[in-house]
Design brief:
780 residues, alpha/beta, Rossmann fold, seven-stranded parallel β-sheet, C5-epim_C
């Protein structure tokens, strides 16, 4: 077989190296740093020869070097295993190694025709059949027999490369013998590809419809390239025999995700081993990546894979690239093993926490920002769904008497996030208080900052110093630097005229405020490990402006308040209307304002006026509009209503408190959300959908556009009263359409915004390692 620049070693040297590696494995779990030694002498290439039996396919990866280990690494049954050091009789049976050894025998049999290779292949197949772990009648896995602490993986976790190699073995055993036993086993192996890691499978979702097959099937997902590529080779073998259309779609989803992420693996001089730690791949894995991409490119006809494989082969041959990668890996090894430890222990005074609780300790830095109420609503949902997994505490920079809340020392009045340089001092103050808690031995496993700028910046830096995972939850703060009107709304009451020098200082502060926001946002984007985003516009900013890899961005599914999901009987709804002084037969349009929702009242009221002029007189008499507005803004709303002579139709109702808005949505037939800024409050739209309202919202938000598709609502152009008027006219004329739209919206929220979905998203972003018992229960 043709090898690509590989120098074979003597069998004795291979055997000695394998025995040394396994003795290290018995002493402790395998880590990435051990893999340099583990595979330093094994050379894999691409098979180019023609088989003697053309009816049977060769395995495209040349792993014939494994056959040199067979003299001392076979047990009495002829099954491949790793032995310990001299005097140690323990044996390690790794399913992936056994499957690869079987494939090496398979290729040797097809190229030489010798029966001993056929027998060796079938002996490995028999072991794999015996040691399959069936999670259900449709799913089978072959667990890894050791823990991998670097990726938070316990003993007996699933592996994409193992599933892929075993799948290739079973398909070839079926082609060789024609026995249905092997095909059924292959089908169960494919079942793990179709399951999320949370359910015992190997698939990790990325984006809206993407997925990645994980070499270490735990969360946080590491996205190890070699494991996903080997898993894909197994799927191609399966589809080649079964022609299963569902699996072909699964392959297409994974290939599309690979094309999206491949640039993240390329550093410009070497390839990365994974995307979690962003380690540079050892020399073996770098050439292995190039070989696997070359094979995948030939199988799929993908020019992108072939060009990238050729580029990575050039990296391996270029002496400067090899030297740079070697020095970088050595420096990374020193930094991980010594530099970080010295910095944390001697300079920062950090110690390893002695926490005996089985719960993960989570600290939530809270911002003193306008959306704090919305943030706390989300945190109540998180505390509800993660009660059994997390022990949550909160860090606030103002006085608070809530349980489990660490109130930082009250900052000086000039330290606030509204102006420069206060925002930088506010960030420094929060970071110092968080670091103080970490130094006191709080032992946090996870930091969960609640905005993408201030809290995320100082939490990200502290997390990097302390070695704590940081997951940023951003509902729209990343849009502040792009929204010049955001900070002006924070001063609703005009201050008296200030002296010229103070006005000058404030003008300079406002001039430097937005650059400060962008700087803190860049720090947060670099230091946070994962981003949970409820807003599509925010995700686009992270991807384009800050070059955040798509695998670090996850969609946050807001959990709508349970009170909004309560089905209200028609009689109760009518009684609510009567209690508020409304006729039971009115067509009620609701319009609400919250600090995060920039409602352009002039556009909304103009659209309502156009609809009233278009509606027939009889229907017009039934239309009423209730506007929930904060007390400070009610005067402006009344002026707009009077200017358009809508006093008989539009009323200002309540003070826009959450319970009042929920009551308003319960009574309403139509909810109108008209904004000129993309930083909208998506939770309010979801509450309206959950209450069964027909929603009319602007298209400025990609989140709105996605929610209102398939007849769940009507999206209109921003700053276009005519479209608003047409939408309201259609709904008021056809109440059956209005109710049908509200019913579809309610069903969507009830199905897609549940406690279970929110919990799964949080587990994907934080930590989850399924045990075999949990995986079997979730599948069954």
């Amino acid at each position: 077989m043709k090898k690509y620049g590989f120098k074979p070693l003597a069998p004795n040297q291979l055997r000695a190296d394998a025995a040394h590696r396994f003795s290290a494995t018995l002493a402790g779990p395998v880590t990435l740093r051990d893999r340099d030694d583990e595979f330093a002498h094994l050379r894999y290439g691409r098979v180019t020869e023609k088989p003697l039996l053309p009816s049977l396919p060769l395995y495209p990866l040349d792993i014939s070097s494994l056959l040199a280990l067979s003299t001392t690494h076979l047990d009495q049954r002829g099954v491949f295993c790793l032995t310990g050091s001299p005097g140690n009789t323990a044996r390690l049976y790794h399913p992936r190694a056994i499957a690869q050894y079987a494939l090496a025998h398979w290729n040797a049999y097809l190229l030489s025709g010798q029966e001993l290779h056929r027998d060796g292949f079938l002996r490995q197949v028999e072991w794999l059949l015996t040691h399959e772990l069936c999670l259900s009648d449709e799913v089978g896995v072959w667990p890894v027999p050791y823990a991998i602490p670097a990726y938070h993986a316990p003993v007996s976790s699933a592996s994409a490369s193992t599933q892929g190699c075993v799948l290739s073995v079973m398909i070839r055993a079926y082609q060789l013998t024609g026995s249905e036993v092997f095909l059924q086993t292959a089908r169960r192996a494919v079942g793990a590809y179709q399951l999320d890691i949370l359910d015992g499978g190997i698939a990790a979702p990325i984006g809206e419809d993407g997925l990645f097959f994980e070499e270490v099937a735990v969360y946080p997902a590491a996205h190890i390239l070699s494991g996903c590529l080997l898993a894909l080779l197994g799927l191609y073998d399966y589809v080649g025999v079964t022609q299963d259309g569902r699996i072909e779609l699964l392959i297409e989803r994974c290939i599309s995700t690979l094309h999206l992420l491949l640039n993240c693996f390329d550093t410009g001089y070497w390839s990365r081993y994974d995307l979690l730690h962003e380690y540079l791949a050892p020399e073996f894995y770098h050439t292995f990546h190039a070989t696997l991409l070359e094979i995948l490119g030939h199988v799929t006809g993908c020019d992108h894979c072939l060009k990238l494989a050729a580029r990575w082969h050039r990296y391996a041959r270029h002496p400067l690239c090899s030297l740079r990668s070697l020095l970088t890996r050595r420096m990374a090894t020193w930094w991980d093993n010594r530099g970080k430890l010295w910095l944390r222990v001697h300079l920062l005074g950090l110690t390893t926490p002695g926490n005996s609780s089985s719960l993960r300790r989570v600290c939530v830095p809270l911002p003193l920002l306008p959306e704090a109420d919305h943030t706390r609503n989300m945190l109540n949902s998180i505390a509800q769904v993660m009660e059994l997994q997390w022990q949550i505490s909160y860090l606030v920079q103002h006085s608070c008497e809530t349980k489990r809340t660490h109130a930082a020392k009250q900052p000086a009045p000039f330290i606030h996030p509204w102006r420069f340089p206060g925002i930088l001092l506010y960030c420094w103050h929060g970071g110092w208080q968080l670091l103080r808690l970490v130094r006191q031995g709080e032992g946090y496993h996870l930091l969960l900052p609640q905005d993408g700028i201030v809290c995320a910046a100082f939490a990200g830096l502290v997390g990097k110093l302390a070695g704590v995972r940081v997951v940023c939850m951003d509902s729209g703060s990343m849009l502040w630097p792009q929204s010049p009107g955001q900070h002006s709304r924070r001063a609703l009451v005009r201050q008296p005229r200030l002296p010229w020098y103070e006005r000058f200082c404030r003008a300079v502060g406002m001039l430097l405020y937005r650059p400060s926001l962008r700087m803190l946002a860049a720090i947060a984007a670099r230091c946070c490990d994962q981003f949970l985003l409820a807003n599509e516009e925010v995700a686009e900013i992270y991807r384009t402006r800050f070059k955040v890899c798509p695998d670090r961005i996850m969609r946050l599914i807001p959990l709508v308040n349970a009170a909004s999901l309560t089905i209200v009987e028609k009689g109760a709804k009518l009684r609510l209307r009567v209690g508020c002084g409304l006729s039971p037969d009115v067509i009620l349009i609701a319009l609400a304002h919250r600090p995060l929702v920039e409602v352009d009242l002039s556009v909304a009221l103009e659209g309502i006026a156009l609809a009233l002029r278009t509606l027939p007189p009889l229907i017009r008499t039934y239309v009423r509009v209730l506007i929930a507005e904060e007390r400070l803004g009610q005067g402006k709303v009344m002026e707009e209503i009077k200017r358009r002579h809508l006093e008989d139709v539009c009323w200002v109702w309540g003070e826009a408190r959450p319970e009042e808005i929920r009551q308003l949505l319960t009574m309403a037939d139509i909810f109108l959300s008209v904004g000129t800024c993309r930083a909208d409050d998506i939770l309010m739209v979801l509450e309206a959908m959950a209450a069964g309202c027909a929603v009319v919202a602007t298209r400025t938000s990609l989140s709105h556009a996605r929610l209102l598709t398939e007849g769940r609502g009507i999206s209109v152009l921003p700053d276009n009263p005519a479209e608003i008027g047409i939408a309201l006219t259609d709904l008021c004329k056809d109440l059956q359409l209005c109710r049908h739209m509200g019913s579809r919206a309610r069903e969507y929220v009830a199905h897609h915004h549940t406690i279970q979905i929110l919990q799964r998203n949080l587990l994907r972003a934080s930590f989850f390692a399924p045990t075999l018992a949990e995986a079997r229960k979730s599948v069954l």
